[in-house]
Design goal:
By secondary structure, the protein is of the alpha+beta class. Helices cover 41% and strands 16% of the residues. It contains five helices and four strands.
């Protein structure tokens, strides 16, 4: 008897439209980071690795998706290493979860703590603020969003 192993095929991308902005969401278990973004067949595509995302709380997962969406909505040049772009996408991600009612006083500390522990990746080290600095910026922005700063 011969045993045949089949390679796991990722599901097809989900095509989305946000006010005329077309993009795709693709689950990709081979991605080395929890989330990222790139062009796939000329379509901006948010890539998500479900195996890496599941190590984070739901609020942080939502924030990561909002962060990647922020790159698209804010028309950042994909593939450009820019601390300004990353900071802007962080802000968009924070507003994304806040305006939808996902972020509140009971879970903001979880988001801030998890962002503070994000490990720097070799490729992104110069593009991002450190995890603790990103967390500090998110905390201050959260306080502003809630009228406390």
């Amino acid at each position: 008897m011969r045993i045949v192993q089949f390679r796991k095929v990722p599901p097809p991308p989900i095509i989305c439209d946000l006010g005329g902005l077309r993009y795709a969401i693709q689950f990709d278990e081979s991605l080395s980071i929890p989330s990222g973004i790139k062009y796939v067949s000329n379509t901006p595509t948010i890539l998500l690795n479900p195996n890496l995302l599941k190590q984070f709380s739901p609020i942080t997962q939502q924030f990561m998706c909002g962060h990647e969406l922020g790159h698209l909505v804010r028309r950042h040049r994909l593939g450009t290493c820019s601390a300004e772009y990353e900071d802007d996408a962080d802000y968009y991600g924070l507003v994304h979860v806040f305006e939808r009612g996902f972020l509140n006083d009971s879970n903001v500390s979880t988001l801030v703590h998890e962002v503070a522990t994000f490990p720097p990746s070799d490729a992104a080290t110069s593009c991002y603020y450190t995890g603790p600095e990103r967390a500090r910026r998110l905390w201050c922005r959260y306080l502003r969003l809630t009228g406390r700063c």
